[in-house]
Amino acid sequence: MMPGMDANADARFPGHRFPAVIIGEVVWLRYRFNLSLRDIPALVARSGIVVSHETVRQWCETFGPDYAKQVRRRRPRPGDKWHLDEMVIRMNGVQHYLWRAVDQRGVCLGVLVTRRRDTDAARTFLRKLLKAQEYTPRVMITDKLRSYGAAKREVMASVEHRQSKYLNNRAENSHQRTRQREYAMRRFASPGHASRFCAVHDPVYQHFRPPQHQLDAAAHRGTLTDRHDTWNQITGDLLSQAHSAAA
């Protein structure tokens, strides 16, 4: 029996033959650990659960965005200092750019995939961040790419802008887990695939990775327990909504 299964573990999403707790567990495995779509069926098979890698992919695409949305809704308000950076990703032999913003605690605020690294792309990214976060930061920290400054003057003229290759390590470090997943997945298939995956992966991964260096062992265990309880609540709430919609 998998962790978190209880008397209500047999409750199912309409149209799905597996219990909701198994779907939630599979989505958690996919975004929390550096596992491929074929690793997860082999892992859950030890618990007597037989699923295909295609089923895992469909569950992650169907339920992952809703789970991530609820995780973002329940987390504390992000900080007022935004770190922005972009990394190169290649898809089908074509170079693209993955833009990411994090706050001073490393919480991901948003991602965007573009073909170009210019002012138009930076402007689009800043507008997307403002719409998603619904507040304006106090400080924006970037590298010395001039597109940031031009876009900032149009979109967030009153925000303090600091440009330095030494101040932006927090944003640059946030790309590392994406590189690891990109390697395990043998690159992203398309810009849409990269955007969808990162939009779910970042909040779910961070939800289950509290800052261990800031907590002692007991506090870290307690925080993880609370976050698993939150995850179980999220999956249960979405199950109730699905049954209400189907009624």
Outline the structure in words.
The protein is of the alpha/beta class. Helix content is 51%, strand content 14%. It is built from 9 helices and 5 strands; from the N terminus they run αααβββαβαβαααα. Strands 3-2-1-4-5 form a 5-stranded mixed sheet, sandwiched between helices. β4, α5 and β5 form a beta-alpha-beta unit. The two termini are 30 Å apart.
How are the strands ordered across the major sheet? 3-2-1-4-5
Order of helices and strands: HHHEEEHEHEHHHH
Percentage of residues in DSSP E strands? 5-15%
Summarize the main sheet.
5 strands, mixed
Structural class by sheet pairing and helices: alpha/beta
Q: What average pLDDT do the residues reach?
A: 89
- Strand tally, please? 5
Q: What Rg do the Cα atoms give? A: 19 Å
Principal-axes shape call: globular
> What is the tally of helical segments?
9
Question: What are the SSEs and their pairings?
Answer:
Elements: H1 20-32, H2 39-44, H3 53-74, E1 81-91, E2 94-102, E3 108-114, H4 119-133, E4 139-142, H5 146-155, E5 160-163, H6 169-173, H7 176-184, H8 191-207, H9 217-246
Parallel strand pairs: 1-4, 4-5
Antiparallel strand pairs: 1-2, 2-3
Give a quick summary of the entry.
This protein is α/β, with parallel strands linked by helices and 247 residues long.
